[in-house]
Amino acid sequence: MKTKDLLGPFVGNVTHESVKIWMHAPHLAAGETLALAITLHEEKPDAEASASGELLISYDNLNVGTVTLGSLKPATKYFYRFTARAAAEGETATPVEFEGLTADDLFFHTLPTDGYTNQLDFLLMSCHNPGTAKDDGFDGFGVWARIPEIMSQNKNVRFAILAGDQAYGDEVETQVLNEPDLRRRQELYLGVYRKFWDNKHYRKVLCSLPAVSMWDDHDVTDGWGSREDSFTDKGSRIFKPEWLRLFEAASSVFKQMQAARNPDPLSPDYGQGFDFCFKVGRAGFAVADLRSNRNVRERRVWLPEQLKNIQRWVDENRQDLDTFFFVSSVVFSHGAPQIERGILKYWFIALDFVQWLGKFKFLKRPVRSFDHAVGDLRDDINDSWGSDVNAQEADRVLDFLFGLQNPPEGVKPMNVVILSGDIHTPGYSTIYSSGKNHTRRAAIPHVVATPVAYQPFSWIGEAIFRHLTRVVELGVKKTYTAQVSHHFCYRNVVVISLRNYEQDESHLKVKYYLEGFPEPQVMLFDLNHGSRREAINWPQSAKDAVSPPVLP
After folding, report:
1. Regions of the chain with pLDDT less than 50
2. Alpha-carbon distance 418 to 432, whole Å?
3. Which of 46, 110, 148, 176 has the most CB atoms around it within 10 Å of its CB?
4. For residues 547 and 337, is the Cβ–Cβ distance under 8 A?
């Protein structure tokens, strides 16, 4: 059995004894199912099967099937094979072949029993829209085409974190808003996923590299939760009915297409969101859902219960953790606050003027181009933790993270690293605390990996931001600041390497593989001894002074 119709297979969450494998069959009819047998083969594709199961793809699950295989051996390479059931009694089951993939491509590694010894490597990436940069010789998938080579240089890589915007629902926004039928809205989103994922270079990576993922706005539509036009009126905090229907469709599709491959959610049946946590050895990961409950008019990034669920998980696992990675689909800071506040204050005037120009027939095309390329920038600004409207939320989450690094007397401190995507330019910044309780470890590294397949942010715009911005104040308490150190304006994938050489000696090595560069850009962070605050008091001119945030 050989078909172009099957999307996948993709490997999901992996542990030392189990794995999730996912597949999508687009053309099932109502009530139809497709059952595929799966077998695992240790070390060699043609070895005797050592484990087996069944992957059941059903129409009711949006033509998605996921199988979890357990009781596996730790630190073992497994090849996997699918066969289709015999069509009639007496017929032989037929092997399933996948377009563009060979038998040698279908494998995964289970983790060691202890997760890792002294080195944990994984990939970080976000923002996958190959249609914006198709002239790379790989139809926009140029970085994906290089990932196998990158992994061959980093043989300890065992999994990937996809930190937001794996598909861009913007393309079907208008159609979904105008479609009353739920299944048809879902099919529109499913079509977007197939378009963005059905490429041999993309599939060749994810059929063998275990990956977990979280959504961001574009998995719904551009600026979801921060869009001014999604509310019933200018003063309302209530989303329009058609926008709620759009979110319903996007959420149900994300649940099957992405969340089904993740570790179990922190709230039963995703009731409070898609947040999840997991451990690899003595490293803990919290992957936050910052879209399910976002509402800019409520000044809400997520529910208080979501943060409490993560706090509870950390408390339950604290004795087993040395390092904590907080995965946020949006950054804490990047741009120049003075520019962003000006846009928030006056951009609606520019939009009204552009719409007025659209009344003239000869200007309709330029106006449409402006709407598509630029549009309303306010949602982009209000997305980040550093936005004034999210200042109180930023204080709460940073109180938690710095509290892990500076616990009460007698409790072992935990190293904290923030991982993010979203802004289409990779790089890093450092978040500092001036809190009296945070003096022992007053800094947290903030690593950004984006975009893996999207036109990168303009180097001119980045230069303007860096020229205008030294330090960005976060929150309303004037406790936290961010200092942006550098950003690279290239498509990329990032290898994160946690090195534990001995007790209380942890280092983070971050390798930015930038498109077109033969060698990676490498950053090193001493997590145990490099997190103090120095705060040099340089004399400032008036134009360099940092202004406190002013809430609108």
Report:
1. 1-2, 344, 346-352, 354, 356, 367, 370-377, 548-552
2. 12
3. 176
4. yes
CB 505 within 8 A of CB 461: no
d(CA 243, CA 368): 22
pLDDT of residue 363: 59
Q: Taking the CA of residue 346 as centre, how many other CA atoms within 13 Å lie in the half-sphere pointing to its CB?
A: 7
User: Cα(50)–Cα(42) distance, rounded to whole angstroms?
Assistant: 7
Contact 546, 341 (CB under 8 A): no
415: tokens are: 């190293």
Bridge partners of residue 510, in order along the sequence: 496, 523
In the DSSP assignment, the letter for residue 241 is H
Determine how many CB atoms are found less than 10 A away from the CB of residue 532: 12
Q: First-to-last CA distance in the chain?
A: 60
Strand partners, 505: 502
Residue 82, strand partner residues:
38
Cβ 185 vs Cβ 234: under 8 Å: no
Structure-token pair, residue 371: 């709407």
- Return the axis-axis angle of helices 182-197 and 241-257, rounded to nearest 10°: 50
Number of neighbours of residue 522 by Cβ within 10 angstroms: 11
Tokens of 125: 């990436």
Q: What pLDDT shows up at residue 144?
A: 97
Q: Which residue has the tokens 């092997």?
A: 95
Token readout for 104 is 């040698």
Report in angstroms the alpha-carbon separations of 6 from 31, 100, 198, 344: 18, 12, 9, 45
DSSP 3-state percent helix, strand, coil across the chain (nearest 5):
30, 30, 40
38-75: string of b/e by CB count within 10 Å (b at 16+)? bbbbeeeeeeeeebebebebbbebbbbbbbebeebeee
Question: Residue 378 and residue 335: Cα distance in Å, rounded?
Answer: 13
321 CB neighbour count, 10 Å cutoff: 18
Tokens representing residue 463 in the block: 């230069």
Q: Are 341 and 550 in contact (CB under 8 A)?
A: yes
pTM above 0.85, yes or no: yes
CB 197 within 8 A of CB 168: no
- Residue 141, CB-side half-sphere exposure with 13 Å CA sphere: 18
